Amino acid sequence: MHVSLGAQPFCLPLPVLLVGTYDASGRANLATAVYGGICSLQPPSFCVSMSRGSWTHRSIAERGAFSVGLPSRSMAAQADFAGLVSGRQEDKFAALGLTPAAGRHVDAPYAAECPVVLELALTHTRELGSHTLFVGEIMDLKVEREALREDGMPDPARLDILAYAPMAGEYLAMGGFVARAHAVGKTARRNRPEK
Question: For residue 80, which of 15, 12, 171 has the smallest C-alpha distance?
């Protein structure tokens, strides 16, 4: 039996996203977000929701570009800090000992320590209550070489990406392999009686 918890923003897990931007003066900044993900295959697009008062919100709107880094489990403290402190007051790259790398395809920095990075060109902006949804076309995907399988595809186990559990307020890491997508579903159909 389900228990109603009311209208809550919940999905499990949520990706932990380190959103990289340059401010008006060109200073690199990072902000943590958990509301975001892939929103289109063609063109390949990724969205992130930012609260209107944030420094990152302003920077994305002004520069028309941003990056999204997916931090690993070992970066939990750094990802948490990047969401607690405003870029208005502190240089988060310096405070966290992270390396700001300039995007090669868009006008946005990223943390070189993230095992996965997306470079995004802003294509759509939508006001949604407390947050603004920014949609960016993926101009490049970068993955650490050590995290690639022999076939050149990212290996989830080697990436060890950080996730977030809303309401519980906990960081998690991805579990192990469960089943092969687009194959295991073929075994799910229950036998139907013959007509």
Answer: 171
C-alpha–C-alpha distance, residues 60 and 74, integer Å: 27
Residue type, 164: Y
pTM of the predicted model as reported, rounded to 2 decimal places? 0.92
Tens digit of each residue's pLDDT (9 = 90 or more) over 11-49: 889 999 999 999 999 999 999 999 999 999 999 999 999
Q: With respect to residue 156, please indicate whether it lies within any of the assigned structural domains.
A: yes
Q: CB-based burial of residue 81 (10 Å sphere; 0-12 exposed, 13-18 middle, 19+ buried)? A: middle
CA atoms 82, 88, 89, 92: torsion sign: positive
Evaluate whether residue 105 is within a structural domain.
yes
Q: Measured in Å, how far apart are the chain's first and last C-alpha atoms? A: 34
Q: Count how many domains the chain has.
A: 1
In a domain, 5, yes or no: no
| CATH code (residue 132) | 2.30.110.10
